[in-house]
Known about the structure:
The complex is a heterodimer. Chain A is of the alpha/beta class.
Amino acid sequence: MGRPVLIEKIGIPGIRDFAVYRAHGGYSLAEKTLKKMTPAEVNREVTKSGLRGRGGAGFPTGLKWSFLDRKTDKPKYLVCNADESEPGTFKDRYLMEHLPHLLIEGLIISSFALGVKTCYIYVRGEFKYIIGILKKAVDEAYQQKFLGENILGTSFSLDIFLHPGGGAYICGEETAMLESLEGKKGNPRIKPPFPAYKGLYDCPTVVNNVETLAAVVPIIGMGGDAYAKIGIGKSTGTKLISACGNINKPGVYEIELGLPVEDFIFSEEYCGGIKNGKRLKAVIPGGSSVPVLPAGLILRTLKGEQRLMTYESLEEGGFDSGTMLGSGGFIVYDEDACMVRNTWNFTRFYRHESCGQCSPCREGTAWMEPVLRRIEQGEGKYSDIDLLVNIADKIEGNTICPFGDAAAWPVSSAIRHFRHEFEFHIEHPEIVKNPDHGSLIQYPVSSIQYR
Amino acid sequence: MKITIDNISIEVSEGTTILEAARKIGGKIVPPAMCWYSKLKNTGGKCRTCLVKVAQSSSKDPRPIPKLVASCSTPVQDGMVVQNITSQEVLDARKAIVEFLLINHPLDCPVCDQAGECDLQDLSFLHGVVETRSDEERREFPVIDIGDKIKLNMNRCILCYRCVFIADQITSKRVHGVLYRGDAAEISTYIQNVIDNDFSGNMIDVCPVGALTDRTFRFKSRVWFLNPMDAHRECSHCPGKVTAWMFGNEIYRITGRKDEFGELEEFICNECRFEKKELTDWFIERPKKIKRESVISANHYEKLIKSSIIHPIEGTTEQQE
Ligand SMILES: Cc1cc2nc3c(=O)[nH]c(=O)nc-3n(C[C@H](O)[C@H](O)[C@H](O)COP(=O)(O)O)c2cc1C
Ligand code: SF4
Ligand code: SF4
Ligand code: FES
């Protein structure tokens, strides 16, 4: 469905090199922007495009840019969030690995729009080879005068610095990232003040995701109005989805927002259906932090409408029966997956990654984890299930940063939709002691679906 | 700017936080603060005990704020309406926070030097949480001496970061901090550095719990056996105004003077705190008035001790008054 807009050049051999990228029309939009457009015009196109942040929260990019304090005489910064560490999400890595110059072109256009002269790319530390690819691309861009002083002879100058992270998921949270860039421990800041006023080194700062900033290139290419025509309603444009789990074709796909979830999972063009002819049990559509939905609810809303890959459709039903598009980390579970083990696994991750600053998150994640471990290992009791719901509930909304919610939602949604699996673990300790017990769990037939 | 907290209104200047406004009003509507400290910059936001409900953001924008906010780090807007003890949601959340703070707390009050003047102890009584529902093993750290004056019992720490900020802001050099993250986070001196500078002793006083204690506290004694007296001396490093904790004519311990919110009125130097323990060193003024509602003054202590190691001695609580 639809032609790729963002990663259309990805199949071209050697596209990672400047020369090939340039020969296929790359950097012509940066050139057009710097020579023929004003910053206000770029801002207008981005606002018209309806582009929403692709890092997870879906905040309108044009609006975020409009908050940047432009009256200041301090320097302003653009920080590109390439810390991608959310379990299930690997779309930015794919983009940076194959199209590093697309990201740099996006950074040039965005920096021009924001009046920024210094831009940082904060790259997840474990992405060592990606850092090498980006470094080579940035060096090439400097050599070709697309970065540095007076780019292409205009009055616009821009420096890009690469900053590898130290291996902390929390540094993907924008204010923790700013702390980390300043050389401090990656503890999220207490807001207000917001980065648009007091960000990096107390200067006005915009933080955007890799995919968001890259998407500015096609927006300038086709114009904001044309971009807004792709997609449905307030979910405009295309989105990279990283699909993984029990599917035939895991990988990164660019979809037009509005694609039915069912088509995404079962069509040959995308995931190619469930592996080994199994049935679909559950999906986490937006990275580990968003609520899991059982097959029935991910394909159709409670109202019986087809569920679409849009921000709005996935949220339909609120947390009772809906979820979120998040970062687009699409994780698919077949009928043999154990939702208790999966939940425990995620909670181990959140316990390990909490920065530990605020008490509900630090203590709550460290409390839920061993409770889940006990249940998974056949040592749980009934009261543990409600205890988990209660702990998750007490973390949610009471923390400094959204990490607390991200740690709470997987637990509360798994219990909301798969309580029978938790009960099964408590009732059948001898079965769940078998490490491959996923296929042995009995559940109501209604909770799994054939295509 | 006008703000209304639990139906009581007050005028405050711009930039005041909700907590500061509440302290101006005073009394029961003041949210408890375990990490924010008025005399230290950048503190607050971490413990979440001060969460309140904003029922109306401002007169311009009458909408409520959906999530509870940390009153210590949320500035007042004109016409803001806040609920603290009048909101069940707030009370429930606070109770949950207290429980979170207690999960890994050793509850070793009977042998803790802070017992009787511990903010966490007071808070847990106020919210009726003495134990947690957690069956999991508690986190354990070895108790260490950080220098010859201060003992660190990390098991009691609530990671309020006050001792970190105070070392940054009033001592010449900070040699300790928070290492690691999540529930593995700990206060430590990297590679066992020694904390040794003129004002480091104030870390003990700003610590809301018994994680940092005074190694020079003479002849270990429960604080409620002692008479706190306001005292002063001529000091070339600090104002020299302290509380001397006495038993008979002996000074067992020197601390800074605390106000009704449990905060130090003034920081004192290490010489006054650790080295001057003779009656002749001090001019004793008068018995200290303890205003705040502590566990001890409310005579609740025996409940906490339960099947305990040390039994409280009757009549000792009156000494606080
Ligand atoms: C715990 C946590 C981790 C996050 N990790 C990332 C990340 O790896 N990449 C990212 O782009 N945004 C991440 N975010 C979201 C960022 O804080 C921020 O909203 C985003 O970078 C803004 O960019 P956007 O508006 O372009 O989406 C994370 C947020 C939280 C709370
Ligand atoms: S919610 Fe968790 S990760 Fe975020 S500041 Fe609090 S402890 Fe740190
Ligand atoms: S040692 Fe005391 S002052 Fe320092 S962080 Fe822990 S509780 Fe706070
Ligand atoms: S006092 Fe406000 S969060 Fe600790």
